[in-house]
Amino acid sequence: MPLTPQQIEHKLRQHDSEIVSIYDLLAEIKEIVAGHDARFDGHDARFDAHDARFDAHDARFDAHDKRFDAHDARFDAHDARFDAHDARFDAHDARFDRIDETLTEVLRRLPEPR
User: Fold this and answer.
1) Around 29, how many Cα atoms within 13 Å sit in the side-chain half-sphere?
2) Residue 58 to residues 23, 44, 50, 65: CA-CA distances in angstroms?
3) Using alpha carbons only, how large is the chain's radius of gyration in Å?
4) Dmax (CA) of the chain
5) What is the model's pLDDT at position 21?
6) How would you class 54 by CB atoms within 10 Å of its CB: exposed for 0-12, middle for 13-18, buried for 19 or more?
7) What's this model's pTM, rounded to 2 decimal places?
8) pLDDT band at 114 (very low <50, low <70, confident <90, very high)
9) Which residues have C-beta within 8 Å of that of residue 110, sequence separation ≥ 6?
10) At CB < 8 A and 24+ separation, what contacts does 92-95 make?
11) What is the mean pLDDT of the chain?
12) What is the DSSP letter of 2?
């Protein structure tokens, strides 16, 4: 059944009204999205500030690592010196043990006092 000119006019006004409503809805969505963008920009700025702080912490930790590495190197040098001292003390202990054995043997060979 064909539409009458009044029905066509009515449909056109109805479609026009719906199109205007869609544009209004899109405008509201655009405002909401703009608000979200602003919030995201704020979050990005905060994350950038956190990143800067983390970078500063990393730099401090790297400096501490270098200091600890220097201390490790010094402790390694001390360990090497202590190992050398231990070897010398072991040699002295062996010599003292031989002297002790010699003295024990000398005392054993001496005649008993009368």
Assistant:
1) 6
2) 51, 20, 12, 10
3) 47
4) 157
5) 97
6) exposed
7) 0.51
8) confident
9) none
10) none
11) 95
12) P
- The residue assigned the tokens 């602003």 is 38
SS in 3 state form for 32-79?
HHHHHHHHHHHHHHHHHHHHHHHHHHHHHHHHHHHHHHHHHHHHHHHH
Read off the tokens for 21.
Answer: 């409503």
CA distance linking residue 52 with residue 58, whole number of Å: 10
18-62 per-position pLDDT tens digit: 999 999 999 999 999 999 999 999 999 999 999 999 999 999 999
Whose structure tokens read 């072991």? 90
Q: Residue with structure tokens 């200091």?
A: 67
| Residues 91, 70: Cα–Cα separation, whole Å | 32
Residue 89 has pLDDT above 90, yes or no: yes
